[in-house]
Amino acid sequence: MLHFIAVTAPIIYTLTIMTLIDTHCHLYSEEFTEDIDMVIQKAEAVGVKKFYLPAIDSTAIDTMIALEERYPGRCIAMMGLHPCYVKGNYVDELQIVAGWLAKRKFAAIGEIGLDYYWDRSFIKEQEAAFRVQMEWAIQYNLPIVIHTRNAMQETINMVKEYSGRGLRGIFHCFGGSIESAQEIIKAGFYLGIGGVLTYKKAGLASVLEEVDLEHMVLETDAPYLTPVPFRGKRNESSYLKYIIEKLAEVKKVPVEEVAAVTTANAEKIFGA
Ligand SMILES: [Zn+2]
Hints:
By secondary structure, the protein is an alpha/beta fold. The chain has 9 helices and 8 strands.
C-alpha cells in the first residue's frame, strides 16, 4: 500500500555563501603588513576559504611561512624561484628552494617560468631554473604554478616536454590567445583567471567565452593586477568577487556555478 504523505516543507532562508579559493596571492608582501587580519576577514566574508601563496625568492620565504603559521589550513605556501628573480646568484637561490622542498611539504612549486618582458639578460638562466624546478615537481609529485610574460609559446613548449611525465599545474594570470589556451588545456594545465579579465583592452573575455570553466581557476595575484572597479589601487583577495562576477557574465552562468566549478578545479590541483 502506498501512503501519500503531504509534507509541508519548512521555509528556510539560506544565505548562499560561495566557497572560493584564491589560487595566487602574495598576502605576505609588505603591502599587507598593516592590515593583514582585516584583509583575510574581508575575503572570508565573501567566501574565500583558502589562500595559496606563491614564493618569489629567498628574501620572502620567512614572511610567507610566518603568514602560513598565523593562518594554518587557510594560507598555504608554495616554494620556488620566480623568473624575474633569476639573476647571477640563481644557483644559490635554487639550492635554497631545494632545501625547503626536502624539508617539508608545499602546495606547489611556484611561481616559476619565463619572463622576457622585464629583463632579457638572464634568459638562459631562466630556462635552466624553470627546467630544474619542473624536474623537482615531478620528483615530489607537486603541481607547478607558472608565471609567463612575453614568452607564452616558449613556456608552452617547455611545459609540453614534461607534461607527458605527469607534470600538471596552472598558467597563472592567463592573458593569451585562444590558441594558447587550447595548447595549455591539451597539456593538462589550467588557466589562472584574475583581474585582467576585467580590463577591456586585454580582450580576455572573448577568449574565455570559448573556454570551458572546467579548465579555469580563480586568482587575484594580490597586491597586483587589481580588477575594475579598483584598478590602480592595492589588490586583495576579497576582490575575487569582481573577477567571479565578470566571469559569470562572460560564461552566461550563475556566479554560484563559476564558484563551484573553479573551486573544485583548485581542490583537484592542490589535492585539498
Ligand atoms: Zn604572482
